[in-house]
Design brief:
Elements (H helix, E strand, L loop, with lengths): L11 E7 L16 E2 L2 E2 H10 L6 E6 L4 H7 L9 E2 L4 H10 L8 E6 L7 H10 L5 E7 L4 E4 L10 E5 L5 E10 H20 L11 H7 L4 E5 L10 H14 E15 L3 E4 L2 E4 L3 E2 L7 H14 L4 H4 L13 H13 L3 E10 L9 H12 L6 E6 L5 H4 L3 E13 L9
Parallel strand pairs: 1-4, 1-6, 4-5, 7-11, 16-17
Antiparallel strand pairs: 2-3, 6-10, 7-10, 8-9, 12-15, 12-18, 13-14, 16-18
Helix pairs in contact: 3-5, 5-6, 8-10
């Protein structure tokens, strides 16, 4: 008899913390679900990690009342089931870490859900630093002169009590990365210490505002790596307006088009937009001849300025003989993610007399959305005929044309909005 199967090893998990209520944001909607560039702010944060090639899984920590808002923000992304947060950020992180115990990842990156502009390079720097330190955080050196108010309270300016020495000071950002077992133990130690103090009448310690502070208290060395000025945390409505202005200037819209045609050949089915469609003939091609996926792949590659499908998957290469064309499309999708972009919309038109497409259109939309990792509302599939004219009208084959609209970082983006 065989024993229980051990869970698959997951190397790195991103834990995106989004359980706060946003009391300083000034609206009834938690700030992480406010619209930024036409999608919830949290969606930008989740996608940055979900698309990163070195992040194995992504998990959010949310308020239980926000499930419907979270589902909208997470649409189209392959994420772990979210964890329920606690009364404070510290509680929420600990609960999120404890929910990952069954996965036992080697490392975890903890990120604020209200930081929508984290980029792949920052994530890479934090991960690289974990090779030589138990913890690492993104941060920026302080360049402004710092003053301490006599009130000592946030939002109450008062008079200057002292000027602080800024040399060696850094502004902490997220992600903050740690070896999983060690940061979980550090969080639990604080909870156990607080419980012990309560039993013996000791005052509770101060609430720690980031995970690096938790690690420091546990005696873990935490490395500093370079963050970026645009990795801002959206806290107020003014922050959101700044983020909107920056986003508008930091991304550009690209549109690509693709066209493909395959002739009929002996067979009992055709592949169209990732679906096996029964038919009295097949389609002739080096791969599976999915004319819809080929046209769409070319459209995405065209928007990227990355050549065409033949450049990436030459028909002279035996590896692609009878290949599933989904491989081609997901390759193009991953190239978009590598560039730090996203697919805003795709549109495919199939041109044929037979087979009939109408009854399968919804399933094709769903399949394309799945392959591209986007919402179905961003996918269009249509079909038409040529009224008996041309090779498609004579029933000699199927043609497809496609367009893809991408949002890509500009080559020379402006600095963050002031």
């Amino acid at each position: 008899m065989t024993g229980p199967v051990a869970p698959a090893v997951t190397s790195t998990v991103a834990l995106v913390v989004a359980a706060g209520r946003g009391s300083r944001f000034g609206t009834g909607l938690p700030k992480q679900y406010a619209a930024l560039g036409g999608r919830p702010l949290l969606g930008h944060s989740l996608e940055a990690f979900a698309r990163h090639p070195r992040i194995d899984r992504v998990k959010a920590v949310i308020h239980p009342d926000d499930r419907a808002l979270y589902e909208r923000a997470a649409a189209g992304l392959d994420l772990l089931e979210p964890a329920a947060g606690g009364a404070t950020r510290q509680d929420s992180v600990r609960r999120g870490l404890e929910s990952l115990e069954s996965l036992a990842p080697a490392a975890v990156l903890i990120h604020d859900g209200a930081r929508p502009f984290v980029d792949a390079a920052v994530i890479d720097r934090v991960l690289d630093a974990l090779a030589s330190a138990p913890g690492a955080i993104a941060a920026l050196p302080v360049t402004d002169t710092l003053k301490r108010s006599e009130t000592g309270k946030r939002g109450q300016a008062g008079h200057i009590a002292a000027t602080l020495e800024r040399a060696g000071l850094w502004r902490a950002q997220t992600p903050q990365g740690f070896r999983f077992a060690e940061i979980l133990a550090a969080h639990r130690a604080i909870i156990h210490g607080a419980a012990h103090g309560a039993v013996h009448g000791a005052a509770a310690g101060p609430e720690l505002t980031d995970d690096a502070a938790v690690a420091e208290r546990a005696g873990l060395a935490v490395a500093l790596v370079e963050g970026t000025p645009h990795n801002i945390k959206v806290t107020t409505r003014d922050d959101l307006l700044r983020a909107e202005r920056w986003l508008a200037g930091a991304y550009e819209t690209r549109v690509g088009q693709g066209f493909d045609v395959h002739r009929f050949a002996p067979g009992d089915h055709v592949m169209l937009c990732g679906l096996r469609v029964p038919h009295e003939a097949g389609l002739k091609g080096h791969s599976d001849a999915d004319v819809g996926l080929h046209a769409l792949t070319d459209a995405i590659l065209g928007a990227l300025g990355a050549g065409d499908i033949g450049v990436h998957f030459p028909p002279s290469d035996a590896r692609w003989k009878d290949a599933d064309s989904a491989v081609f499309l997901t390759h193009a999708r991953d190239l978009v993610a590598t560039r730090g972009g996203r697919i805003a919309h795709v549109d495919v038109t199939l041109v044929c007399e037979r087979p009939r497409i109408g009854a399968r259109r919804v399933a094709m939309v769903a399949r394309l959305a799945e392959l591209l990792g986007i919402e179905a509302e961003r996918v269009s599939v249509k079909a038409t005929t040529t009224e008996g004219l041309g090779f498609t009208g004579r029933g000699e084959g199927i043609a497809a044309q496609a367009t893809a609209t991408l949002s890509l970082p500009t080559l020379n983006p402006p600095g963050p909005a002031a």
